[in-house]
Known about the structure:
alpha/beta; 27% helix
Amino acid sequence: MTHIAYSKSIPVKKHYDVIVAGSGPAGVCSAVAAAREGVSVALIERYGVLGGNLTVGHVGPILGEVAPGGMRDELLELLGVPDNDILGVVGVAHDTEKAKRVLINFVRKANVEVYLQTSVCDVIMDGNTLRGVIVTGKQGMYALTANVIIDATGDGDIAYFSGAGYEIGRKQDGLMQPVTLEFTIDNVDESRAITCIGEVDDVMLGNERFLDFTARCVREGILPEVMSSVRLHRTVTPGERRVNTTQSNGINATDVKDLVKAEVELRNQMHQLVQFLRKYVPGYENCRIISSANTLGVRETRRFIGEYILTDDDVTNGRKFEDAIVHNANFIIDIHNPVGGGQAEGVPQHAKPYDIPYRCFIPVGVENLILSGRCISGTHRAHASYRVMSICMAMGQGTGIAAALSVKEKTPPRYLPASRVRNRLIELGVQMDA
């Protein structure tokens, strides 16, 4: 690879108490939680709308559970899906168009300054201390500085640019969970059409379990192996289904070449799947695609090394921590197969409600940086549970409060007592002790 030396003087546009990079479920909640504590907050988003998987990722229903009384409950009410449950048994996919309006109003009401169509391309370091970010947009590059920066980019871009250590994929081969493009179909006949929430679902198609039927279709060459699990979720609109089935394996979502490869493969799979539904599944004879994700649904990339690494046993045994800032998180260990279809471990293992300690959000070796969302510190299997949107919302609220307290108390995030964050969450109504 050829290298060039590049130097340019860029303006420092503004200083904030807190910068949040990424406006997915974790980032939106981080920004609003911090701003409500009375500090100045900037929210940086690479796309033209807020929400990440809530909007451009087209992901639904919002899965997982956390302790009640937090921002997750508030957002689900605003999005019109307050009854969503841990696995989507009764939960429905929200309206992504409504979400685009709801989320921008949500953050603006909290006086968060929003930077849309803005990508972080580098960071400003003073030794091992993070001082700001370099962003780029239609007006070129400029810098934003802050006392504390929250990395809610999903892939951990800020932490990566800062030189923080990370792990990727599973231990035996480094493979990550596959990527997906979710989409919505309509013209579904509700009087005859089934739903299927995934491998834990025993819904029948005639005299055969639906997922046994789709597995048989794979063996008979009707469906490709990677689409053996056809997941069909109801939405807030009768006659619609949110489809979570397309799958591209062997993709590193931080590599542009892989992103293009997956985009081509998955767009073609969407067409193939609709043809399958029309031909083989009653009630879907006239279904059609009405909308789809604008970006890949990425389940896993970098997991950064924090002061504590959440383990498989922590999740499966429901471990509680004194320094928890996320309480009673719960979701299955949902590892989509990186070398085939369905689940990597056959049937997903159930977790017990577990805590996520503050130490998981503090990366080793970098100061003034807080992790939030799926890039936090955990093992491959633990990550497969905590990566879902409900749990990421709770992460966001906790890390936003931590950042604000760090600023107000002039204490670096690493040395902020987790009890201060926990107590503030309790004051705000989160049932941290239930």
